[in-house]
């Protein structure tokens, strides 16, 4: 039975998510079609650039991605705090980069703002409240990404109809072990599929993008001055902004149109999330870049179709720090999407989440115990 999206994506549980979207009928609509001979490889670049472009608008960061011939993976971090720091004008400006916006919003952002009545200003501010929530909403991010790519691909093929399967799949990443497993799973997807030999050759992946840059640029932490360090008493991650006028809400969806491709194509790609081995900043991936490269290189040698079964003698530093055995991690790291359900984490994290969701069982607890090697009752 399909789970409601609200039960799968809850920022009170975690801001980190692994998402997957597949082409309809799993056809090779982003690669080379062996039946027709058509080559759609260039569409993989569309998806890569659009995801990073949307990250420059939404309060959502891209930690890892891999765009394959008939599907793509993203590892994302939702930063609700960031969108709440934006004032109304910033929120409306960001939203109208993607959607046309109602007339009152367009006037609010123009020189005509001084002529607006008090009621019109209140209306524009109500729109801003709604949009602020959408700008840290994973479903809206994915909707804009998939809809814009489908529209562009259909225009190229001169056809109409669905390009993507019904809805994207998501997995909550509950702890550092889950984040590491998901990122390495995503970055090594092309190697596991046998379409490339090494990390540098894996086209349209975050690891290849990082490796193509100077290491000091890829690992530099660039943190906004307003971004707080980790604090135990930081405000709750989830905040509901609800406009006071129901009539405004009912008209928001119908009154807006996704902007044309030439406008969306002008979005500047956001940088990938930086690595922060110190764990001090919410804006960083909590691993060091050298340690992550060591792990992915080690796993890449083990999972390539012509080299499977080759277990390294030493344990990569990241696995050692997180208390994960190399053989167990390798044995399960490349079937995450099917071994786990709507969440990935150590057994204790999954048990806690099941209790919060008031369900008896979450798929993947046995795999988590084998993979991460932690006691199921560690949190009790």
TrEMBL record:
Organism of provenance: Ectothiorhodospira haloalkaliphila
SUPFAM superfamilies: Transposase IS200-like
Superkingdom of origin organism: Bacteria
SMART domains the record matches: Y1_Tnp
Region (Disordered): 211-245
GO molecular function ontology, one term from the record: DNA binding
Extent of Basic and acidic residues compositional bias: 227-236
Transposase IS200-like domain segment(s): 12-189
Gene Ontology terms: biological process: DNA transposition
This protein's name: Transposase IS200-like domain-containing protein
């Amino acid at each position: 039975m399909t789970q409601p999206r609200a039960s799968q994506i809850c920022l009170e549980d975690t801001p980190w998510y692994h998402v997957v979207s597949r082409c309809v009928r799993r056809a090779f609509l982003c690669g080379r079609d062996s039946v027709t001979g058509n080559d759609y490889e260039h569409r993989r670049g569309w998806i890569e650039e659009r995801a990073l472009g949307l990250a420059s608008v939404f309060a959502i960061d891209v930690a890892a991605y891999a765009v394959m011939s008939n599907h793509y993976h993203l590892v994302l971090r939702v930063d609700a705090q960031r969108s709440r720091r934006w004032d109304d004008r910033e929120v409306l400006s960001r939203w109208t980069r993607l959607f046309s916006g109602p007339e009152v919003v367009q006037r609010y952002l123009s020189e005509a703002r001084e002529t607006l009545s008090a009621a019109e200003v209140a209306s524009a501010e109500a729109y801003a409240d709604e949009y602020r929530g959408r700008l840290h909403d994973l479903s809206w991010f994915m909707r804009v990404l998939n809809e814009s790519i489908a529209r562009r691909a259909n225009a190229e093929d001169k056809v109409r109809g669905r390009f993507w399967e019904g809805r994207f799949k998501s997995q909550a990443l509950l702890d550092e072990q889950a984040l590491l497993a998901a990122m390495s799973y995503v970055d090594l997807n092309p190697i596991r599929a046998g379409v490339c030999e090494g990390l540098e050759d894996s086209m349209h992946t975050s690891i290849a993008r990082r490796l193509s840059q100077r290491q000091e640029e890829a690992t530099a932490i660039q943190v906004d001055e307003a971004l707080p360090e980790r604090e135990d008493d930081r405000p709750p991650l989830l905040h509901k902004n609800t406009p006071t006028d129901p009539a405004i809400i009912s008209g928001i969806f119908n009154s807006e149109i996704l902007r044309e491709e030439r406008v969306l194509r002008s979005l500047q790609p956001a940088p990938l999330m930086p690595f922060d081995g110190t764990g001090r900043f919410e804006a960083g991936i909590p691993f060091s870049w050298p340690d992550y490269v060591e792990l992915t290189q080690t796993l890449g040698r083990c999972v390539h179709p012509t080299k499977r079964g080759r277990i390294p003698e030493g344990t990569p530093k990241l696995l050692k720090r997180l208390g994960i055995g190399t053989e167990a991690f390798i044995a399960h790291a490349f079937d995450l999407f099917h071994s786990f359900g709507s969440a990935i984490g150590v057994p204790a994290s999954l048990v806690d989440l099941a209790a919060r969701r008031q369900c008896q069982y979450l798929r993947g607890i046995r795999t988590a115990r084998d993979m991460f090697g932690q006691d199921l009752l560690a949190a009790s």
